[in-house]
Amino acid sequence: MMNREPKQYDTGEVLPPPTERYTVLGWLHKNLFSTWYYTILTLVTLYVLYIVVKPTLNWAFTQAQWQVVVVNLRLFMVGQYPADQVFRVWIALHLLAFTAGMAWGIFFPRARRIGAAILLIPLLFAALPFISNFSRVNWVLFDVFALLGWGLAIWRPQAMRRPLLVLILAYFPILILLIYGIKPILRIVKTNLWGGLMLTLLLAVVGIVISFPIGILLALGRRSELPIVKLFSVLYIEIIRGVPLVTVLFMAELMLPLFLPPQIKIDNVIRAMAGIIIFEAAYMAENVRGGLQAIPKGQYEAAWALGLNGFQTTFYIILPQALRNVIPVLVNQFISLFKDTTLVAIVGLLDLLGIASTVLAQPEFIGRQREVYLFIALIYWVFSYAMSYASRRLEVALGVGER
Amino acid sequence: MKRTLYLLGILLIVGVLLAACGSSAGQNGAQAVKTVIVTVQAKGGNTPSGFGTTLKAVKERGHLICGVNSELPGFGYVDQQGNYKGFDVDFCHAVAAAIFGDPNKVEFRPLTAKERFTALQTGEIDVLIRNTTWTLTRDTELGANFAATTFYDGQGIMVRKDSGIKKLEDLQGAKICVATGTTTELNLADQMAAHGIKYTPVVFEKADQVYGAYDEGRCDAVTSDKSQLVSRRTTLKNPKDHVILDITLSKEPLGPVVRQGDDQWFDIINWVVFATFTGEELGINSKNVDKIKATTQNPNVKKFLGLEGEMGQKLGLSDDWAYNIIKYVGNYAEIYNRNLGPGTPFDLPRGLNNSWINGGLLYAPPIR
User: How near does any CA of chain A get to the CA of B112, in Å?
Assistant: First the structure.
């Protein structure tokens, strides 16, 4: 990180150490061929990579029949969601692009190059040869909306802060209404038709968003001095942490209907969501508690000395610091939840993995396991990597770990 | 600080209590209340057992809920347009056609092998049509009733054509690929022990590995249900080099399953299956059914198509129930050929699944 401002040596500022510079050959020599045994290791590794990568690439470009992915692309993305209603998912995406563009303009007004690089990705999708023109137009629109939001934020950064907050808070309910439908305007699409990547993302996002406040309450409850609250929190956390997620999901899907009277039927997607939330809240609580414990006692005392009451201390002094400390852990939990949602495939939901198995049962594509599983693995990787990258940027922006 | 935590704790407890109150208040509501996520129906409207209750509930709901397999080639899967397709799925359509005169008034619930019976017991589904084998234990202990068998499957053995293996005894000393932990593995051991044949089982966790190993030549034979052998044969490098032996190691009759306690519903499912058999026996299919209905003088056909005898009403359905099945879904031969027959990659011979007229096991009691 080079500082672009003129240096003010008289302030006694500590400069970062100079970065090392190498030529290509110099870098190779230092990192790969510095001693004779490193040279041997490097050569062996290169050979192993060669014999592994070559057949893989050879297979991917000459033998693999990607037709199975191409013709089932809509299934992979939105499952059985009716084709004539897919525009609703696009609207939700455009709104997301608008919100994200606005946030980008307000919080990273100078990071234009990275922003432009991100905007290239949808254009790349739009250029794919096998997608429909409808999707092509929508990918371009996606960028248009992102730029629109960004432009607004650059134009009036101060005035746009409040609308942005409203958008962020309202996005989630709007998303659910868009996808589920509102009686007279939008046709109701029952949750049994939700599927694919859309369902995977919804499960993960709902799981993390709703378990977050519950987790914070449980973490505070566990540190509370009220015996009943403390006992409840401890019992909840320890019981849930003592069972695997599969068990919780099975309970939610199979046992819940047995306990409930037959008049009450809860949708099975909602049941899976409830199971995930119940499970994640316990882990969330422990993560947040870790952050709370890292806050030195002096912070409480200082807040007290300033005359803040308990509520103010917790919500203005302690929690902001505690949550900032646990960002890496929370992102880690989110990534792991994103992948754990595949477990709902065993309770009969057609998420990305469930759709993959049903696509593999299409008579014309029996035996295309490698193509299909590689494709969904790629999707999982892209999303997980994007999340971890975003969290690293967020940590830098918030200065976590620089104290 | 302390007070805040008090407050939060109280909020937490109140929240939990509120949630509990909310659900109990919902139960007391006498009228049907609908919310986005929870559907509360009027009391007595949908108890899962009792004569006539299932049909009543299905009609009130306006569609059938059918438990299916979503990942079995030929029997249940989602096609590229996002619609369920397959042999089992077509029988769901047939039930819907018989009740509503519309084969599409059905909601599919994909189920795994583990959850299928619980889903049936709890009333999540009206009927389970998911390649389920009829056994005594399941029929008695699980509170299930098995309707007429739609598909007679059985465990078979596939070998290479050039191996010269023709019968079970030829497998003496052979290596046989099989999935571990399945009844398939046990059946193989039982049968081989009964015939005193020594063999080496080569076991794998997953079906993909089993057939991969067989294709690479690591085993002389591979064993599994015949319908699966046939579908998997199409994925081998040279499908024509392999042959499925005419040996059946175990009986696997697959058919629809309903809850015990509603005999009317059990009858309906039974007779829907029989109607598809009868259609084939009488030579009535989806293409000629309108013509036959207009011209027929045969009293059996007239009763079948609802022109006389009021057969449908005895089941609690309309009299053209069987006509609707044949018209919108087809007779058994059409359903079979569409999903498993010569036009498909499976090209599965009818074998036992032929009408009794052609030497198979499909035999429908008379509709009269």
Answer: 6
pLDDT digits (tens, 9 = 90+) for A49-93: 999 999 989 988 888 889 999 999 999 999 999 999 999 999 999
| Gap between the Cα atoms of B204 and B189, Å rounded | 15
**For A288-307, b where at least 16 C-beta lie within 10 A, e where not — what string?**
bbebbeeeeeeebeebeeee
* Neighboring chain B residues of A180 at a CB cutoff of 8 Å: 36
Q: Are B277 and B355 in contact (CB under 8 A)?
A: yes
CA–CA separation, B64 and A114 (whole Å):
52
Span B142-168, average pLDDT = 92
With beta carbons under 8 A apart, name residues in chain B contacting A265.
38-39, 41, 124
pLDDT digits (tens, 9 = 90+) for B104-138: 999 999 988 878 898 898 888 999 999 898 989 88
State the ipTM, two decimals. Answer: 0.82
What is the least distance, in Å, from the CA of A382 to any CA of chain B?
24
Which pLDDT tens digit goes with each residue over B277-316? 999 999 999 999 999 999 999 999 999 999 988 899 999 9
Asked whether the CA dihedral B134, B313, B107, A263 is positive or negative, the reply is negative
What is the pLDDT at residue A337?
93
Residue A311 contacts B where some CB pair is shorter than 8 Å: yes
> Rounded to an integer, what is the distance from CA A340 to the centroid of its chain?
12
* Chain A residue with Cα closest to B41: A263
The beta-carbon contacts of B280-283 under 8 Å, at least 24 apart in sequence, are B280/B331, B280/B332, B280/B333, B280/B355, B280/B362, B281/B355, B281/B357, B281/B364
Mutate to test the interface with B, among A67, A224, A308 (most CBs of B within 10 A): A224
Query: A386: part of which helix (H) or strand (E)?
Result: helix A369-398
> Average pLDDT in the A304-316 region?
91
Does the domain spanning A195-403 belong to CATH 3.10.20.30?
Answer: no
Looking at chain A, which residue has its C-alpha nearest residue B341?
A363
3-state secondary structure of A225: coil
The model's pTM is: 0.83
Question: What residues in B contact A130, CB-CB < 8 Å?
Answer: none
Do residues A208 and A110 touch, judged by C-beta distance below 8 A?
no
Does B70 contact A228 at a Cβ distance shorter than 8 Å?
A: no
- Residue A5, Cβ density class (10 Å: 0-12 exposed, 13-18 middle, ≥19 buried): exposed
Inter-chain CB proximity B82 and A75 less than 8 Å: yes
Tens digits of residue pLDDT in A323-343:
988 888 888 899 999 999 999
Distance from the A38 Cα atom to the nearest Cα atom in chain B, whole angstroms: 38
Question: Cβ contact (<8 Å) for B1 and A354?
Answer: no
The domains of chain B, with CATH numbers, are 53-150+255-358 (3.40.190.10), 153-252 (3.40.190.10)
